[in-house]
Design goal:
The complex is a heterodimer of chains A (113) and B (115).
Chain A (H helix, E strand, L loop, with lengths): L3 E4 L2 E4 L5 E7 L6 E7 L5 E8 L5 E2 L8 E7 L2 E6 L8 E9 L2 E4 L3 E5 L1
Parallel strand pairs in A: 2-11
Antiparallel strand pairs in A: 1-3, 3-8, 4-5, 4-9, 5-6, 7-8, 9-10, 9-11
Chain B lengths: L2 E3 L4 E5 L4 E3 L2 E3 L5 E7 L6 E6 L5 E3 L5 E5 L4 E6 L8 E8 L8 E3 L3 E6 L1
Parallel strand pairs in B: 2-12
Antiparallel strand pairs in B: 1-4, 3-9, 5-6, 5-10, 7-8, 8-9, 10-11, 10-12
The chains are: A mainly beta (113), B mainly beta (115).
């Protein structure tokens, strides 16, 4: 079946640095991808919709300048956490799909020290 | 506002026993309902979905779910669990058909399977 990959699978960074997370659809093209955030023992919260060739759409309460999203091609979306702080530590998950069938990446665990 | 409630945070079940995971939703329109399973190191995997029609939906891995509009519920069941069913299960509502992939997820239910 379709596969969505994420890179890196985990990352540790210092406070104040920026971190880029990649989401790739491996065997299909995706004009739209989605970014979720999951805190420990909590549900996934939709952060934004990544649109190929145009600006991302952010959910209410998500800082667009903090979480930069770029969808430069039909198979790649990137999420950059800028000037990361410890409260940004979380599990970030992307998804992409074909119609109502969505495929989720394995997630990226970010730890900001 | 839409909401999805999974009342059980954690369930322990013996291998071979039946399993039922509860899900209640609050949604103004006809809901598009999903169950996903999350295993460590793997992405969420779709178990089944309900859009319309027969209210009893069959999914993968022997799972089924029943949509009950009167109770605003979409409970997931499996007659006989296997050790490999230990995972986190999420119920979700599709927020829009204009952009599939926008979900409201429940808090999840952790399933532990004992020998």
């Amino acid at each position: 079946g379709a596969v969505v990959s994420q890179h890196p699978s985990w990352v540790i960074c210092k406070s104040g640095t920026s971190v880029k997370i990649e989401c790739r659809s491996l065997d299909f093209q995706a004009t739209t991808m989605f970014w979720y955030r999951q805190f420990p023992k909590q549900s996934l919260m939709l952060m934004a919709t990544s649109n190929e060739g145009s600006k991302a759409t952010y959910e209410q309460g998500v800082e667009k300048d903090k979480f930069l999203i770029n969808h430069a091609s039909l198979t790649l979306s990137t999420l950059t956490v800028t000037s990361a702080h410890p409260e940004d530590s979380s599990f970030y998950i992307c998804s992409a799909g074909q119609g109502e069938t969505q495929y989720f990446g394995p997630g990226t665990r970010l730890l900001v020290l | 506002a839409q909401s999805v409630t999974q009342p059980d945070i954690h369930i322990t079940v013996s291998e071979g026993a039946s399993l039922e995971l509860r899900c209640n939703y609050s949604y103004g329109a006809t809901p598009y309902l999903f169950w996903y399973v999350q295993s460590p190191g793997q992405g969420l995997q779709l178990l089944l979905k309900y859009f319309s029609g027969d209210t009893l939906v069959q999914g993968i891995k022997g799972f089924e779910a029943e949509f009950k509009r009167s109770q605003s519920s979409f409970n997931l069941r499996k007659p006989s669990v296997h050790w490999s069913d230990a995972a986190e299960y999420f119920c979700a509502v599709g927020l829009t058909t204009d952009s599939w992939g926008k979900f409201q997820f429940g808090a999840g239910t952790q399933v532990v399977v004992t020998p």
